Amino acid sequence: MTTSTHLVRTRRFLPLFVTQLLGAFNDNLYKNAMVLYVVYSVYNSEAAEARFSAIASGLFILPFFLLSALAGQLADMRDKAKIIRVVKACEIAIMLVGGTGLVLAWLGLEVEQVAIPLMLAALLAMGVHSTFFGPIKYAILPQHLHDGEVLAGTGLVEAGTYIAILAGTILAGWIPVEVAAGGVVVTALIGYFSGRQVPPAPPMIEAQKIDFNVFTSSWRLIRNTTRHRQVFMAIVAISFFWTVGTVLFIQFPPLAKNVLSASKEVASLFLVMFSIGIAIGSMSINALLKGTVSARYSPASVIVMGLFIAAFHQVCDYWPAHPGMPLMDVATFIAQPLAIPLLLCLLGIAVAGGMFVVPLYAFLTTVVDKSETARTIAANNIVNSGAMVVGSLLAVGLSAAGVAIVDQLLLGAAMCVVSAWLGYLLYRAEKAAKAV
């Protein structure tokens, strides 16, 4: 029996895995149903669509930047299983608000005045939900798993997350928006009950006073966490990766509609290919490293990712225009001569990305003491979210400056070079630490 097969049969891993799976599924079902509906049914301008997609991404990310320090303190100083139950109960209320916004938009009632603000408010609240759940899903692994199981557990969580993203993304593109509104509430209910099955995970240090000042606590958390060179380099490299990912995810819906003349189902297909690729990359790197936490393959992986982004840009650039024609459905799109190369480029981007980022997350939970893992993940989330907000602002700024959305892809390719350099520095720091 492999480590992965063994883990999914145990109560110390399975309930957390299922809860994370459902949370990621719900995030993406809701977020993509909202963005695709607004892009394809409300707005009719590439700039407006790109702006809305960037605003939605920015709102979801903002709580990570502001509240991750508080989330990390709570996760390290309180029982993580109890926090999961509170967070998943809040998700039910959030999805009731978001579902109401989706239904109002579907009915055409006060779409811009009420429905869109409700949907965006729920998205912001889901960002808060994910901010408090984020440190726990990784920090609880070294507490419940044996040392030789942590990388496999991290890989399973990452792969499962992207499979859930895949499922949520597929449904968001294919089911009616009113069905999605009910689906997000039902999923939140199931997630709450699965979260209640997570075994207790009491704090491994004595309870300390919580610092509720989000600015001073964030700065102190980052400063204390990044004193370890390997952790610092891993956090910076992960942040650059997610900046690239943010720019790509913002671009997919308006790019599919305005550059490729494709329907929302095709935009959903792009996200599906990305999710499949991340899952493949997550499991592949675990097999290559044989359970050892190492950044050995990270520089090469992200260089390959950048090459695939450049190839994706080239295919989009050669894509023939279809002015005045109806948007292509999936079957019509797949029949286009350049469709398969385009999808293979997307798959390559994601596989290489998964191989780059999974070992870096494992660094964050294995290099530091187990009593500090949640705060380490929280510090990572603060820096990551700041980088992703920068990515969102870059996308908005480039659109406002009149840069064609297809040319914005080159920004992501260029940033992969920086990520490769950071990955190389991390690998050097890793080897130096082992030599001591």
From TrEMBL:
Location within or outside the cell: Cell membrane
Keywords of this entry: Cell membrane, Membrane, Transmembrane, Transmembrane helix, Transport
Major subcellular site: membrane
InterPro entries according to UniProt: MFS, MFS_trans_sf
Record field: transmembrane: 50-71, 92-109, 115-138, 150-173, 179-195, 231-254, 266-289, 301-320, 340-364, 385-403, 409-427
Matching Gene3D superfamilies: MFS general substrate transporter like domains (1.20.1250.20)
Bilayer topology annotation: Multi-pass membrane protein
Record-level GO cellular component terms: plasma membrane
SUPFAM superfamilies named among the record's database cross-references: MFS general substrate transporter
GO MF terms held by the record: transmembrane transporter activity
Official protein name in the record: Major facilitator transporter
UniProt organism field: Novosphingobium subterraneum
